[in-house]
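Researcher: We're teaching a course module on how sequence relates to structure. For the next exercise, students receive a sequence and then see the predicted structure as tokens, so they can try to spot secondary structure elements on their own. Here is the exercise chain.
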Amino acid sequence: MRLLRDAGFIKTDLHMNRTFILLGFFAAIAVTSCKDKEEAPETSGTVTLSSELKQIGSQFVVEAFSFEDAAKTDASAETVADLFLVEEFNVNEVSGGRFSSNLDNKEAFALVTSFPSLGTAEEFFEAYKTIEENIFSPLTPVLKSGQIYIYRSNKGNFAKFLVRDVTLMQQSEFVTVTLDWEYQPNGSRQFP
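Model: And here is the predicted structure for the students to work with:
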């Protein structure tokens, strides 16, 4: 009788150990799954970039933006990023801005369309889901509120962005641009 009772305890203990091991396994999967979701970069948002030169040590940098990382960075000549805001000059004054990409990306930007009303541009931007064949260039035209662009990276991924605002700052010394963006990281020409 004692042997059976002891065997029952052993069986129960083994059953409980398996249960705890399985629970621990599923908990680890759940934590890892949540962690992966937290670490994945955003694929859309709003960002404001400035062409103002900042000095970091002995180097001068401007803000740049990476769609893949969904982040701004301080950019120098060696920086790899998708968008660099460059100034447009008119008689020694900043009169606007353009976006440039990496020096080796000669087919980065295509203007899709432009609207005089930001509200109409927002509606079009939301509805624009399929990237058609376009003529791409290394620079955008001078940026204006209501313009919608597509961007093609060297990796073949696409983004679309809507220029919300272009502001000349501090007696036309630099420009800021605010844009809504959406990135398609898998190379598809379709946006969700």
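Model: If you want an answer key for the exercise: The chain has two domains: 1-40, 44-184. The radius of gyration is 26 Å.
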